[in-house]
Design brief:
By secondary structure, this protein is an alpha+beta fold. The protein has one domain. The chain has five helices and four strands, in the order αβββαααβα. A four-stranded antiparallel sheet has the order 1-2-3-4, with helices on one face. The longest helix has 31 residues. The protein is globular and about 70 Å long.
């Protein structure tokens, strides 16, 4: 099994949120917001005339991965809470990494801003991202239609 990014991070959630805010501002965001609930967190910012939104599912504090050891023994409440907090810190570190990498890729010209953030763009008048809006139609399309091969056969005249 692969090890999760930032699984052992000591960086606090607040510090990761502050880093995300600083990063997006440095790359030109003119608005920034972060939201949290028990089940999920979100970061939103406005940049280049677009509203960008990242929703992040947060670990469930009651999940067996936190309440029990790998051998199935119950953990003490304080140990379970510490394991859950560690998973939350790792999620925020991963989000900070993703946003920073995307913005740097745009900055150096590897990708275009609109392409890199398309799935996380919230169209005007909407509360869902384009990625969220397209997820189900794409699932249906892939289930009902055959995909074009990545390397289609080239006939004798096409070589």
């Amino acid at each position: 099994m692969t090890r999760r990014f930032a699984a052992d991070t000591s960086v606090s959630m607040d510090r990761s949120i502050a880093e995300i805010r600083t990063t997006v501002r440095r790359y030109g965001a003119n608005e920034f917001m972060h939201m949290e609930s028990d089940e999920r967190a979100a970061v939103s910012f406005s940049m280049r005339g677009r509203r960008i939104l990242f929703r992040v599912p947060m670990p469930d504090q009651k999940d067996r991965a936190f309440t029990h050891t790998e051998t199935g023994k119950p953990r003490a409440a304080n140990v379970a809470e510490a394991a859950w907090e560690q998973a939350c810190r790792a999620s925020w570190r991963a989000l900070a990494l993703v946003i920073k990498a995307k913005l740097e890729a745009v900055e150096v010209g590897i990708v275009m801003f609109e392409d890199e953030f398309l799935a996380n763009t919230v169209p005007p008048g909407s509360s869902v991202t384009l990625g969220e809006a397209m997820r189900e139609p794409m699932r249906i399309a892939h289930e009902t239609q055959s995909s074009t091969p990545l390397l289609p056969y080239l006939g004798e005249g096409d070589r």
